[in-house]
Design the sequence.
């Protein structure tokens, strides 16, 4: 039976790259995004959903299981990043960032892990940020650290909680990746934030996630894909 991967934030950028990569591996894919277009591929279930809304993540898992019968991999890629001074964040910023970064993770992962335990194993990967480990004065991003730092912590907690049940849990902590999230006119400045002097590319993130997918002895890992940013400047 073909394996099934659920990818959130799948309509563009890293998420779209992951959908393509998992299909090349022969996985059936559940692709989720607020702006997810329909797919012509019968092995791709495209779901348009705002995962910040209570219960939507639960529905996504239910639809995935109804269509394909199992979930082997979940990539929690959906996320939102708002960079501004801490005292300028609003209640609306807090709700938006925690809704996508935390509620989406909680609702989808809870159901997916339950399915993985029942079927005998699986893998959860969450996209985080290297700013959790290496804060930059030039990029004030307390809400990213608040939420993604929690995701790094729960990655380790769940890896240990479910290790004996053959469910692996890992994260990738990213530097700044060349995606539609960033305007092209900012690329030179953003590249300078990495010791290697360039932006990361989508395929480099996809490769890192596929490494975690294939190496079954890796769990509880926060894999930095950040051009050396977490090591220092």
Sequence:
């Amino acid at each position: 039976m073909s394996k099934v991967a659920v990818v959130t934030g799948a309509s563009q950028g890293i998420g779209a790259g992951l959908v393509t990569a998992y299909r090349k591996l022969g996985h059936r894919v559940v692709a989720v995004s607020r702006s997810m277009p329909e797919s012509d591929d019968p092995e791709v279930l495209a779901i348009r959903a705002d995962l910040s809304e209570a219960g939507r993540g639960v529905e996504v898992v239910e639809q995935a299981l109804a269509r394909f019968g199992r979930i082997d991999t979940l990539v929690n890629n959906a996320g939102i990043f708002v960079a501004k001074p801490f005292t300028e964040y609003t209640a609306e910023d807090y709700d938006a960032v925690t809704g996508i970064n935390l509620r989406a993770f909680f609702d989808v992962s809870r159901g997916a892990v339950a399915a993985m335990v029942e079927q005998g194993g699986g893998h959860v990967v969450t996209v985080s940020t290297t700013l959790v480990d290496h804060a930059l004065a030039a990029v004030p991003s307390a809400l990213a650290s608040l939420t993604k730092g929690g995701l790094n912590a729960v990655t380790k907690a769940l890896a240990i909680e479910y290790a004996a049940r053959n469910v692996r849990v890992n994260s990738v902590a990213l530097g700044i990746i060349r995606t539609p999230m960033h305007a092209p006119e900012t690329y030179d400045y953003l590249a300078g934030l990495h010791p290697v002097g360039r932006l990361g590319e989508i395929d480099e993130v996809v490769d890192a996630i596929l490494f975690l997918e294939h190496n079954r002895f890796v769990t509880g890992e926060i894999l930095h894909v950040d051009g050396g940013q977490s090591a220092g400047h």
Observations:
- Residues 4-231 form a domain with the Rossmann fold fold (CATH 3.40.50.720).
